[in-house]
Amino acid sequence: MDLNAFAGEVGGAGAGPVTVVGGRTEWHVGGAPHPGTRQVVAPSGVVEHEPAELTVRVRAGTQIEELDAALARHGQCTVMPIRPGATVGGLLAVGHSSVKRLGHGPVRDTLLEARFVNANGRLVKAGGPVVKNVSGFDLCRVLVGSLGTLGFLAEVVLRCRPRPARSVWLAAEDADPLIVLRALYRPASILWDGRTTWVCLEGAPGDVVDQQRALSGIGAWRAVDGPPEPPPAWTRSSTRPSALVNLTGPFIAEIGVGVVHAPVVPPPAPVDESRLVVQQRLKTAFDPTGRLNPGRAVS
Amino acid sequence: MDALVDDLRAALTPDRVLVSPLALELYARDASIIRGRAEVVCFPLTTEEVQACVRVARRHGRPFVPRGSGTGLAGGAVPVGDPVVIVTTKMTRIVEVNADERYAWVEPGVLNLDLTHHVAHLGLHYAPDPSSQQSCTIGGNVATNSGGPHCLAYGVTSAHVLAIEVVLADGSVALLGGLDAEPAGYDLRGAFVGSEGTMGIATRIAVRLTPVPPAVRTLLLDFGTVADGAATVTAIIAAGIVPAALEMMDAAITRAVEEFVHAGFPADAACVLLVELDGLPAGVEADAEAVAAVGRAHGARTVRVAADETERALLWKGRKSAFGAIARIAPNYYLHDAVVPRTKLVEVLATVYAIAAEHDLVMMNVFHAGDGNLHPLIVFDKREPGVLERVEAAGAAIMKACVAAGGVLSGEHGIGLEKRDYMPLIFSADDLDAQARLRDAFDPDGMANPTKVLPSGSRCGDLQHVPEGAWI
Ligand SMILES: Cc1cc2nc3c(=O)[nH]c(=O)nc-3n(C[C@H](O)[C@H](O)[C@H](O)COP(=O)(O)OP(=O)(O)OC[C@H]3O[C@@H](n4cnc5c(N)ncnc54)[C@H](O)[C@@H]3O)c2cc1C
After folding, report:
1. Burial, B332: exposed, middle or buried (Cβ in 10 Å; 0-12, 13-18, 19+)?
2. Partner B, chain A 265-294, Cβ-Cβ below 8 Å
3. Residues near B179 by beta carbon (within 8 Å), at least 6 away in sequence
4. A16-27 in b/e burial notation, b at 16+ Cβ within 10 A?
5. Which candidate among A23, A140, B89, B288 keeps its CA 20 to 30 Å from the CA of A83?
6. What is the pLDDT of residue B326?
7. Is A161 exposed, middle or buried (0-12, 13-18, 19+ CB in 10 A)?
């Protein structure tokens, strides 16, 4: 399916309420669209990977695993989380970063150009295909995390990065995660569940060995296969990094970042009224009839 | 007009509202060659005073223009349409530094380099380092999403801004973004960064602080042709190496800089590359060797590795004094800014030199080669009849060549007035309409820095006029 056909399927105001379905791996985020809302699927496929440019053009319906495999052939990757079944468009629309955000940065910084279908069923371009760009307003940032409430992603250009030469996960039961954070230079990830600390070290083999040595005084570390997986029923929330030390009950916290995975939903943060006014105006400006993902809301 | 000034003086203090001819002359322009007309210039000290200025302006039916140090190169801070100019240069407090969470809250008038100096003793720095960092404000950096040599690996300003307190065009205050990992709502922080004063005035900014890397290697490679240097840039990225910085200077600029700083830049080189690698020692060492090898394979005549911090500082001083050095060559310069795919550097540079020759202009290139961010710099003497027309024509041709190569209009200076009317080169009517809607969500009445960034006609039924009193 080409981009225009996708735009045609989304249609204009006359085509009524519509939602776009990715891999359904985070369908619940922001609430499910109203029952009976017509569903469309974004086009898929890796359009063009330019290894020498460190960018890739990919259709939004492409599974992230397919994209990652294509990039891996040239020793590259993106910062997007690798969630089986999830699509590139879905991951961007939700905007949650991977557990390696501490070292790799947030998903929002990876989207260079977006072609999306607006509420009138027209294809719109935001951003540009090069790695640095301040030509006009940064709509790409707004689309990431907008849950398909402003437009439906059809095709994107993402920034790539070299895959690290070496990547190891370690765990220790007796290590203070904040001391770990201070002992390392830009680790890829530090997770903590109140007892166990997990660390991901990446880079040149010699540096990984050195960083492992820097950890040796802080705990009894063992190699593990990867990060702990929060149970599917847990929710994800966000706080200030400094607030993580006060967590109680079961949780997995991303140290230095502030993302928390836990079974209980924390109370909502106070809302800034002026920000909300702008946010509502933005939604109305992009989707005057409220046909894009009705029932789903960006908090 | 008198009533406006009286009201502003009542809201601030009389001495912080200027109407003298000298002040109006000074604030009629920024660092570009575009000139507007200022009528009244205010210097608030606090968020409340900024609110007061915005409200007074509104009451008198006047738009406002936010302004930092006025080093912008796209005319973003140039007053058009009789606005109140609101200058942030007296809002210079570093409000809070949190070394554990690695952020700082600053007022918008804090100078970029002052923040880095302020936190250096903590082993931290503020990563975005525009060449103008000694004189530009962090508020201006946020508004233009500034870049700098080290943004290649560290990311441009947007990646370093956590939260922004903004006075909106209706005088209310909004907090965009936050210190937590994933602040609620649309990423309005991300939209505000790079909005060139059209979405409100940043009055407080929380920026990320970055640890100083444990190891640094700085290399200077010199080449017999510009094409060899450009091919080296492409090959370094293709080899999977993302240096902290990867800068190019051509022959003319290298010679000018050498006379200025005496850093030992080879006077007979067609171009030099300044490459910096940082991070952990083993990776830095391996990458430095790889960069040297790639350079030699592409015809590098010499590869000089800075032996110590003094030598490194000297090489960087050379790069960062490029503009000071130019001032000795000709009284005026026009600095362009465009981005092309890094794989197209060789051919685009050849075209850019050809355009300068065709228009009989002296051009030099000193730029952020690693991210394909060209800065063709034309030096001239504006007293020469007809030269401004040639400078402008060459600029337009350069921009079109970059767009034809798959590039964009600006990598870090922004659109402002300078490139506003070129936006349709890269955006369709639908694309521009979407940007206009984003802007209008912040400022439905168009009071914040009107006529900038978006060309007239960006909205359906838009009837915007050519800014009165503006000339390029
Ligand atoms: C010699 C030289 C070298 C330069 N090198 C670089 C470089 O390497 N990288 C780079 O990116 N730029 C560079 N620049 C351009 C310029 O320095 C940057 O754009 C800088 O960010 C502008 O900051 P300023 O404080 O001077 O802003 P101003 O010029 O005063 O304003 C710039 C824009 O920001 C808006 N603005 C200012 N403050 C605020 C605020 N508080 N809230 C909302 N809007 C605001 C203004 O309305 C205007 O649109 C260079 C300029 C010069 C003269």
Report:
1. middle
2. 268-269, 271-272, 274-279, 281-282, 285-286
3. A240, B101, B103, B162, B163, B206
4. ebbbbbbbebbb
5. A140
6. 78
7. middle
**Residue for token pair 């503009």:** B323
Which A residues in the span 19-38 are in contact with B, Cβ-Cβ below 8 Å?
Answer: none
CB contact under 8 A, A275 and B237: no
Q: Over chain A, what is the mean pLDDT?
A: 96
Q: B158-167 pLDDT, tens per residue?
A: 999 999 999 9
Q: Which of A133, A138, A238 sits opposite B182 (nearest CB)?
A: A238
pLDDT score recorded for residue B332: 87
Q: Are residues B398 and B464 in the same domain?
A: yes
**Claim to verify: residue B445 and residue B471 sit in the same structural domain:** yes
| C-alpha triplet A254, A255, A261: angle, nearest 5° | 25
Question: What's the mean pLDDT in B195-214?
Answer: 97
* CATH number reported for the structural domain that contains residue B189 in this entry: 3.30.465.10
Number of domains within chain B: 4
Which of B146, B167, B204, B321 has most ligand 1 atoms within 8 Å of its beta carbon, as the pocket-test mutant? Answer: B146
Residue among A96, A128, A269 whose CB faces B408 most closely: A128
- DSSP structure class, residue B382: T
- Assign residue B444 the CATH number of its domain: 3.30.70.2740
Ligand 1 pocket member B411 (CB < 6 A): no
pLDDT tens sequence across A137-176: 999 999 999 999 999 999 999 999 999 999 999 999 989 9
Whether this model's pTM surpasses 0.90:
yes
In this prediction, residue B362 has a pLDDT band, given cuts at 50, 70 and 90, of very high
Q: What is the mean pLDDT of chain B?
A: 94
Give the Cα separation of B324 and B32 in Å (integer). 16
Chain B residues closer than 8 Å to A95 by CB: 182, 187
Say what percent of chain B tops pLDDT 90: 89
Same domain, B113 and B147: yes
Whether B282 and A146 lie within 8 Å, measured CB to CB: no
Check whether residue B377 and residue B449 sit in a common domain.
yes
> A86 pLDDT exceeds 50?
yes
Option in A132, A161, A278 nearest B371 (CB): A132
Domain of residue B74 covers 2-87
